[in-house]
Every structure is written in structure tokens, then in C-alpha cells.
Amino acid sequence: MNLITSRYGTKWAAPLLVLLLAALYAATALPGLGYTDDTAEFQLVGKVLGVPHLTGYPAYTVINHLFVTLFPFGEVPLKANLLSGLFTILAALVIFYKMKAMGIGTPVAFLVTSGFALNLSIWVQSIIAEVYSFNLLYVSLVFFFLLKWHQTRKNLHFYLALGCYAFSFGNHLTMITFLPAILYLLWVDDRSVFTDWRRIGWLTLLGLLAAAQYGYLFWRYYDPATPYLAMQTPTIGKLFWYLSGGHAKGMMFSYSLSQILVERIPLFARLFFREYGLLLAVAVYGFLRLQDRRWQICIALAFLGNVGYALNYRITDIYAYLLPSHMFLAVLLAYGCQEIIRKLGSRMQKWAVAALVLFPVINFACNLPHIRVVNRDVADPRVEETLQMVGRDALIVCPNSHHWHYFLYHVIAGDYQARNIHILPFDNAAKLHDYLYENRPLSLFETRTTLSPGMTVYFYDVPFTFRQTLQRDAYEMTAVTPWLYRMAARAPIIISEGGEN
To answer: Are residues 390 and 329 in the same domain?
Structure first.
């Protein structure tokens, strides 16, 4: 049997891949509310059809809502986490068939795709509520259909590729980084697509339909019942401001050339080496051995576009932006393995494929301890204890964004919706001062709520040194529990003319 071109096991390989990944992702999924503030926010907006932080992610939010509503098992936060795993499984299937379309044998395609899905970056994003696995699915679909069009010139593949690309902007705007690769392949394969008015007309229609996704943001903004709006778009101009970067523009292109060379490139090299180790050399070999030069350059442009943008973007979870690059590396790795195996005799080919089993096995063994840490990173149980203690008609001040989103989930989508409890992140001391000392109303942006003066104020999990600072600033801090303090404006000391208080 020729393991290079063999289709042996194709019928069982795809279902087996789905079953293995489904079992693994379900068993290791974050069991509830928690992990990061973004994860808690996505768990919230899926339940209540809210709007998360920029750029609003309308496609993800609607699919999230449908999934947590229709999927019958588990609590809402767990369902939102499982949805990410579903996206990755679908992406893995597409990647598997993309490898097959490139002539890679079933055993190699299956093993490399399995190892790819067990990379730490991929695995983490598959067990928490986030948008990155959905983005990975879009990228895999775009380049799968683009490859099929490149091979067959069928209009169906052309429209599917560019349709998926247009609709992908409803999830993540980093898809723009793949435009040079797409334009290049279209230009070298069939320049008439740029002058064929029939095709241009259909693509314009697809683009308009894709842009209509952002109508969701206007719908939710103008619906007074929407309980959570982290991104508010009253006008088209405001929407364009958000989509062009908004307040995050300072995070874009924020590194100097020397920082990119000395800090960022070594960081990214470590990230890729952590996932592939010495197999990176095989991926490079696979790239160099690609016989289809046009497809080779397309992959190079796509990879460099994704990595180049991420290199100059300042964000803590930048590794998640690189998931598409991992996909391209996996495809090249599979092709490199195939080329190496091709040079071996039939007996050695079997041993080489058997050795490739180590890729998913080692990834599983090495990454499982890290995944267990993520799996245990659920919301602090003191959050619900605090809500039970304050009862109702209260304002809770949180010291960080994580706990703020945990509280918001419970008071907006959980069991505390009717208790008139409100949450304020302590990022504006002036607001709190005006509320307690000046008796001014307090406006909460994300929930579009205005609190009248007089509500009981609590501070959750205030650090000791920070509590001392607040007390020096004339706040009364009365301990309710070791982690919860009741806050009030300290009564002024009035000194009589005789010198007595």
C-alpha cells in the first residue's frame, strides 16, 4: 500500500477525528463561568443577545445565542465553552480535507491534523468561550475553497471562498491580513475575475449581505431591553470608528523596529517552537518542496500577513491571533512529512507513519497539565456568596475587569436579575466620589443604567494597601466579610467655636 497517495481509511478517518476531538474537548472544557474577562463576557452576551467589546462580533454572538438556547445539556457558560470546541472540530475537518486535496495520504493527514488540534494554543481556545476558534474555521474554509477553485476553476468554489471571506468580517477583522494572498492567487490564476461584471455583481451582493451582519449592533443598541452593550453604535459613523480600531488604535503598530527584531520575533519563534519543536524544520521543508508555486506563494503571503500584523499588535493574548498561522504550518508539515516518506521504501514508510503518531501523543501528554490549569480557572465562588450577602438594592465595586464580568453575568443573566444589584469597575475614582460625597447620580455605561444617590455601596476583594488609601481619602470601610467592605462617605468633623467637636 502506498501511504503517500493512499485513500485507505478515508471513510473512517474523518468520523474518528470528530469523535476523538469531541470527547477530548468536552472532557477538558472549562466547566462554567471563568477564565478571562473576555470569556465571561462572551458567556454573558450569548445568553442575553448583548454586544461585547469592539468590534461587536455579531456573527459569533448570534450563533452563540442559538447554540446556548438550543443545545440541551449543561449550564449556559459551559455551553458557550463547548461551542468553541465545535468550531475547532469543524475547522480540523476542513484542514484534513484540504490536506487530502493537496494529495496528502490519509494516515499522514489524520495524524498531523490530530496533532494540530492538540497544540496548546488551539486546545486552549477550544475549551473556553472565545471568538478565535470561529475565526480559525473561517480561515480554513476560505483557503480550502480557494484551493479547490485554484485546482478546478469551478465558479461554485470561487463564490464559496469569497463568500466565506466576506462573512468572516462579521467575526474578526484580522481577516483583512489575508487579502494580499487572496488577491495574488486570483490575479495569477484568472485575471478576468477583476473585470467580469457578472462576478463583480455577485461579489458585491455577497459583500452587502456580509455587511448586513453589523445591523445586529444597531438593532441591539436601539432596543431598550438590551441589558449589556460594551460597544454602542448609535450612528454609522460611530460604527466605522469602532471598526477602524476605535480606542484600540494605540495597540496597533505600537512597537519600534528594534523592538520587533529584538523582542517580538524571538517571542513568536518561541511560540511556534513550543507547538512544533523540531517539526518546524519539516514544515519549512514541505514549503520548499511544494510543486505548485502559485499555491506556495499564496500560503507564504497568508502566513506573513497574519504573523506580520500580530508582530506589531500589543495585546496580552497575542498567541490566539496566530491560530491561522498554525493551520498553515500544519498543512506544510503534512506535506513535508509526505515528501520525506515518499523517499523511503514501503517498509520504512510504515515505520515513518508510525513515528508520526508521536506528534499528537506528545502534544497530548505535554499540554494536558496546562489544560487542567485552564479547566480549574473558574470564577471565584466568593462572587455568588457576595451576591447572597448584599441581598438587593446595592452597588458592588470591583477592583478588576475579571470579577466585574463575573458579577455582571450573575446580575444580568443569572439568578440575581430582579434584585437591583449593580456592578462598577473601580477605574474611575471620581465617579464613586461624586456618588457618595456629592450625591450625584451614577451612570453605568455598559448597562445604560443611572443610579440615584443613596444605594448601599460595597467594595469587593479590596487589597489591604488600597483599603488604607481609600480610608485616607475619607471613606468609611466597614468589614462585612474578609473580602467585602461596606463603603460610605465619612461624616465631616465639625469643630465648634469653643474648640469642641
So the answer is: no
